[in-house]
Specification:
It is an enzyme of class 3 (hydrolase). Its EC number is 3.6.3.41. This is Heme ABC export system, ATP-binding protein CcmA. Keywords: ATP-binding, Cell membrane, Cytochrome c-type biogenesis, Hydrolase, Membrane, Nucleotide-binding, Translocase, Transport. By secondary structure, this protein is of the alpha/beta class. It is built from six helices and nine strands; from the N terminus they run E-E-E-H-E-E-E-H-H-H-E-H-E-H-E. It folds into two domains: 132 residues, 3-Layer(aba) Sandwich (Rossmann fold), CATH 3.40.50.300; 61 residues. It has a five-stranded parallel sheet with strand order 6-7-8-3-9, with helices on both faces. A four-stranded antiparallel sheet has the order 2-1-4-5, covered by helices on one side. The structure holds adenosine-5'-triphosphate.
Length: 220
């Protein structure tokens, strides 16, 4: 087990920064005037009630949608102009796995799709780190929800850059062992200077992760 996470020095350049950010979905203005930063080494927990706009904010950060107003920058560049970028990883609600492929093939496919082809050994080791060593060759359609989530999250285990991870409800369907394994990945990432912006309806292990919280219910 890794030691509790120590937040970075404030001098580190932010991986993500938002100013005057506003978001509209349909005819609803979800938030406006939002400003925040996520710096290297930080784990940031985005909170708020159902429908408050957490996923919408992560989509802005991932460059999958444009803000109604204001700006959101990844490494100083507008997020919406750099949706495909090796300096960040986005894992959404959906696992995006192929039912007909095995766990190994599905993870290989995901990695290639995101421009991160990996050796068979690296893919195996990533699945092992998520506790899937016994299920490597199983078809995705035969896996439980928690096992599918583990395959999708194994994508993080091949990363070794201090990049930005944007994770929407990554703990969904995980049991205590899966949560612990994911926390190990998050802590290792923060320790190498990477940053994490995540949502979770489950309470986080705040003692280990020492997350900084952004609560949309307290924002404009
Ligand atoms: N495609 C869409 N078109 C119109 N409105 C949408 C669309 N997607 C989401 N919304 C609305 O935007 C609001 C924010 O949704 P969002 O998914 O960002 O919330 P959330 O905070 O992630 O919620 P939850 O905690 O339930 O996951 C909701 O009121 C939702 O109904």
């Amino acid at each position: 087990m890794l030691s509790p996470h120590v937040p970075p020095s404030p001098a580190a350049a932010p991986h993500l920064s938002a100013t005057g950010l506003a978001c509209r979905r349909g005819n609803r203005l979800l938030f406006k005037g939002l400003a925040f930063e996520v710096a290297g080494g930080e784990i940031v927990w985005l909170r708020g009630r159902n429908g408050r706009g957490k996923t919408s904010l992560l989509r802005l950060a991932a460059g999958l949608a444009r803000p109604e107003d204001g700006e959101i920058l990844r490494d100083g560049v507008a997020a919406s102009t750099s949706a495909v970028d090796r300096r960040f990883v986005f894992i959404g609600h959906a696992n995006a796995l192929k039912d007909d492929l095995s766990a190994t093939e599905s993870l290989q496919f995901l990695l290639r799709l995101h421009g991160r082809p990996c050796s068979a050994a690296a893919v195996q080791s990533a699945l092992d780190r998520m506790g899937l060593q016994g299920r490597r060759t199983a078809a995705v359609r035969t896996l439980s929800q928690g096992q599918r989530r583990r395959v999708a999250l194994a994508r993080l285990a091949v990363e070794d850059e201090p990049s930005l991870w944007i994770l929407d409800e990554p703990y969904d369907a995980l049991d205590a062992d899966g949560i612990e394994r994911l926390n190990d990945l998050l802590l290792a990432h923060a320790a190498r200077g990477g940053s994490v912006l995540l949502t979770s309806h489950l309470e986080l292990d705040t003692v280990r992760l020492r997350p900084r919280e952004i609560d949309l219910d307290r924002c404009a």
